[in-house]
């Protein structure tokens, strides 16, 4: 079992700054240049007329003549220092160390706290990073601005270990620019010994936080997309990319009602506040709760922590990716690094620290329990392949819609 980190990768997501609306796609494209078109046709477009990838409207991004993939058969760069640009506390240093030993190189990890911060720094063109960990909702920006280079698949044979959905993902058909990194769901965490209700027996478990008897002991995630989506699902709306003003207004009203009932807290400390008993019901990320055992008070068994996600998979599910930056000086090692983190033994070791699953064949609830990575009582945090077919996704929004979502969140959270 991993040691406590003191903070979660999701502490730093701050997705109010993660989408295109916060960065301003125009500024990114103006700084880096843009040309070409995509093969997708869709009425849903983002800034600059880019398509917005959706499961029912996949996008195959263009490959530009002045941004081709590297040639096949090249040797790894010698005496190199691979520059990795990643979220805070989102990779197991032990796996990085073993990569260094295998390829006789050094790896330097530089971290960022929000995707907005990362993109703002990358667009300066002055940071020679090799490997980057972007979220799906900014991929179009990265491709069109040529900040990332197309992949040469011959260097990444371990993609064969990935779930089939990720060898042809809707957001990057034919995985031309990305390989999958972590996957996660968003559900409800609770202290079973302090809360009477069991979400698995409730008619609408998304309404579980709306109970006045738990006043002062309820928290939602500090994430405008996640928490507005909670309000939507509480009202029976599962389009988490909705443009309907009435649905968004109703979600806001539900969050305001939640605050009136329980004086809700807003934070991303689900990983520690539920195990400690500071919060009894917390809107939560699966990867955070998978690590609950590391944060339990002395003498308190992790079995008292529960995590609910719909058994039919109809809930929020998402993933992060790895990509190769055009600014990097070590493209062969960059490909090999991504390949290394798609190999099952390395994946299991990475999960043991990170908490967040990776969509690799062999990563099953049974394997995670038998390896001592996950307690049996928290197998509900495991993301199953079917979830990406049945689940609901929070995807990139058109700028005007994103601004409306952010305004709702600011009006609600700013008053607390």
Question: What does this protein structure show overall?
Answer:
With 416 residues, the chain is of the alpha/beta class. It has two domains: 9-183 and 318-385, 3-Layer(aba) Sandwich (D-Maltodextrin-Binding Protein, domain 2); 185-315 and 393-413, Periplasmic binding protein-like II (D-Maltodextrin-Binding Protein, domain 2). Helix content is 30%, strand content 12%. The protein is built from 14 helices and nine strands. The chain has helices at residues 20-23, 25-32, 93-103, 115-122, 139-144, 224-234, 245-262, 270-276, 286-290, 331-340, 344-354, 365-370, 387-390, 399-413; strands at 81-87, 106-112, 131-132, 179-191, 218-220, 265-266, 281-285, 305-308, 317-324. Strands 1, 2, 3, 4, 5, 6, 7, 8 and 9 form a nine-stranded mixed sheet that branches. Helix 3 links the parallel strand 1 (81-87) and strand 2. Helix 6 (224-234) crosses helix 7 (245-262) and helix 6 packs across helix 14 (399-413). 49% of the residues are buried.
């Amino acid at each position: 079992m991993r040691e406590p980190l003191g903070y979660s990768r999701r502490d730093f997501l701050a997705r109010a700054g993660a989408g295109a609306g916060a960065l301003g796609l125009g500024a990114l494209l103006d700084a880096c240049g843009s040309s070409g078109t995509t093969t997708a046709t869709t009425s849903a477009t983002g800034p600059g007329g880019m398509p917005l990838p959706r499961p029912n409207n996949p996008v195959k991004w263009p490959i530009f003549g002045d941004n081709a993939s590297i040639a096949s058969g090249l040797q790894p760069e010698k005496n190199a220092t691979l520059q990795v640009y990643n979220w805070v506390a989102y990779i197991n240093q032990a796996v990085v160390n073993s990569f260094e030993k295998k390829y006789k190189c050094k790896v330097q990890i530089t971290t960022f706290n929000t995707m907005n911060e990362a993109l703002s720094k990358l667009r300066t063109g002055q940071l020679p990073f090799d490997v980057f960990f972007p979220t799906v909702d900014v991929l179009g920006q990265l491709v069109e601005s040529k900040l990332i280079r197309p992949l040469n698949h011959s260097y990444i044979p371990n993609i064969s270990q990935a779930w089939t959905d990720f060898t042809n993902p809707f957001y990057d058909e034919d995985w031309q620019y990305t390989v999958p990194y972590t996957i996660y769901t968003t559900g409800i965490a609770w202290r079973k010994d302090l809360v009477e209700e069991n979400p698995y027996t409730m008619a609408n478990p998304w309404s579980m936080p709306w109970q006045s008897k738990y006043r002062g002991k309820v928290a939602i995630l500090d994430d405008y997309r996640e928490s507005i989506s909670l309000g939507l699902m509480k009202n029976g709306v599962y389009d988490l990319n909705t443009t309907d003003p009435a649905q968004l207004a109703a979600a806001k009203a539900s969050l305001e009602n939640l605050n009136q009932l329980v004086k809700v807290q807003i934070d991303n400390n689900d990983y520690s506040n539920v195990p400690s008993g500071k919060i009894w019901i917390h809107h939560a990320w699966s990867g955070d709760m998978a690590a609950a055992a590391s944060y339990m008070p002395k003498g308190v068994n992790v079995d008292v922590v529960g995590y609910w996600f719909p058994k039919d998979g109809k809930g929020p599910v998402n993933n992060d990716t790895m990509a190769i930056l055009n600014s990097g000086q070590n493209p062969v090692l960059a490909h090999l690094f991504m390949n290394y983190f798609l190999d099952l033994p390395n994946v299991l070791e990475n999960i043991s620290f990170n908490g967040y699953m990776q969509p690799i064949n062999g990563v099953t609830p049974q394997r995670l329990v038998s390896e001592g990575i996950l307690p049996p009582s928290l197998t509900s945090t495991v993301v199953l392949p079917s979830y990406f077919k049945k689940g609901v996704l929070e995807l990139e929004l058109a700028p005007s819609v994103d601004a409306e979502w952010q305004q709702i969140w600011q009006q609600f959270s700013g008053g607390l």
